[in-house]
Amino acid sequence: MSGQKQLTLKLRSVSYSGDNIGKEFTFEITADSVTKTIRRNVIHGTTATISRTDSIILTKEVEASIIGLPVGIKVTEDDPITDDVAVITDASGTGTLPFVPVDYEAIGIQFHSLSVSVEEVGVFTSSKTATLTFNFEVDLQEIGTRFVFNVSERGWLSIRHEDELTSPKVLPYALKVKITEIKDGREYFIIEEGRLKGHKANVKLADDGGSFLTKENLHTDSVNFIYHQENRVLEVVDTGRIYWAKMDEGNPIPIGSVDDIAIPYEPHHDFGEYYERYSIHAKTWFRLGHTDEDRFLHLGRGSAGCITVSADQNEGESWEEIYDLLITARKGDLLSVGTVKVIN
Fold first, then answer.
1. Rounded to whole angstroms, what are the CA distances from 115 to 40, 171, 251?
2. 92 or 146, greater pLDDT
3. How much is the pTM?
4. 81, 88, 110, 146: most buried by Cβ count inside 10 Å?
């Protein structure tokens, strides 16, 4: 019987607590006879994020009978004299590998952590024990789920519509779709989120036969902002990072309003092209709310009711930072990447 859902196991981060035994680690993660070796410096008392390319341990199709994945972990702290090594087993001491549980009915991302105790060894050391906690992500998707991946430098993928729509003829990076057929050098799919949700489209295969879509779930957590009207700054809630921004005083968003920030729908060529000298993604605007009211979060100088991130006042690649935060973020409603609240 063929698999019914697609499972991806990722190691998202490693937390380091207990005693300090060093910082140069090698992790060997084994799941379903597949072993991934990751070398990473981890500072004591911190959590180290694993890069997207290193994080994927396993991708496979699974049946409804699955309840979890047995996972083996070997930790080596690279010491110039004697390496400190630990291998995870279950708490019962039987040597049976613990497993990362999987809820087959829960489409989307599930989280689970496993801890390993590592004892420092060596002639000149006292007894120290470190705890490494491995934070895993299980991503469960329907078979055929893909995400827009290989896009133009401006972040859009050219497509053909299969129904009554004729535009927009592009999809944004990280948009979720579901493959229905591959034929005649093209992939056919249903769009699964955003304003085009439910519509059918297709995209050509690359010249080498590869896909412009990926099985890897590119989505990240929702991003929330606060716009401080009096100070004219836009604040990222989680980090406190602020950007100079403005809003038309004659047509402001009401104080206290909380608006969804929508998944991008189409490039804004007319008003965005000039600002590509500041950011290659200047044409990507994020609509505020889900009506046809023309309020957006975007890069620029003026505002007609939008929240406009200043092209002149902010240093460096400010819009690139905001774009990178938002383009993969998802609120969980299939429409939004986050929220913005307006305060005085």
1. 17, 40, 53
2. 146
3. 0.78
4. 146
Distances (CA, A) of 139 to 70, 131, 157, 263, 330: 16, 26, 24, 21, 14
Give per-residue pLDDT as tens, 105-143. Answer: 988 889 999 999 988 876 555 678 999 999 999 999 888
Closest CA to 162 of 181, 175, 135, 143: 181
Collect contacts of 293-301 with beta carbons under 8 A, ≥24 apart: 295/253, 295/259, 296/268, 297/225, 297/234, 297/261, 297/322, 297/340, 298/268, 298/271, 298/272, 299/272, 299/275, 300/271, 300/272, 300/275
Q: How far is CA 109 from the centre of its chain?
A: 11
Residue 317 has which token pair? 């690649």
Q: Report pLDDT digits (tens) over 8-57.
A: 999 999 999 999 999 999 999 999 889 999 999 999 999 999 987 789 99
Q: Which residues of 245-273 are buried (b: 16+ CB within 10 A; e: fewer)?
A: bbbeeeeebeeeeebbbbbbbbbbeebbe
Distance CA 175, CA 217 (A): 10
User: 255: which 2 tokens?
Assistant: 């104080």
Using alpha carbons, select from 262, 264, 285 the residue that is nearest to residue 333: 262
Distance CA 288, CA 260 (A): 6
Q: Is the pLDDT of residue 286 over 80?
A: yes
**Per-residue buried b or exposed e for 52-64, using 16+ beta carbons within 10 Å of the residue's own CB:** eebbbbbeeebee
Q: What is the pLDDT of residues 304-343, one digit of tens each?
A: 999 999 999 998 899 999 999 999 999 999 999 999 999 9
Rounded to an integer, what distance in angstroms lies between the CA atom of residue 179 and that of residue 6?
A: 13
| Closest-CA residue to 260 (of 311, 329, 172, 190) | 329
Q: Would you place residue 4 in the very low, low, confident or very high pLDDT band (cuts 50, 70, 90)?
A: confident
Q: Is 259 left (phi over 0), alpha (psi -120 to 50) or beta?
A: beta
**What would the two tokens of residue 53 be?**
């390319």
